[in-house]
Design a protein that fits this description.
mainly alpha; 82% helix; DUF2254 domain-containing protein
Length: 67
């Protein structure tokens, strides 16, 4: 469900970023990045609107920079 809904995917990427910001364990941060990777892969496949995809990519990059 979520991969076809940009709003849900945006929030998921936000939550992953917020959790990563407070996570001191490098292994757990790696897992959060892995989930972000899976999320953006699905979003790239399922998001039809170019503007939505640009926003998703920006949030994904923000998450990677944080973690």
């Amino acid at each position: 469900y979520g991969s076809g809904s940009p709003a849900v995917t945006l929030r998921l990427l936000d939550v992953l970023r917020i959790v990563a910001e407070g996570e001191p364990d490098p292994q757990r941060r790696r897992e959060l990045r892995r989930h972000a990777n899976l999320t953006i892969e699905d979003a790239r496949r399922d998001t039809k609107n170019a503007g939505d995809l640009r926003e998703l990519e920006a949030r994904y990059q923000n998450m990677l920079e944080t973690s």
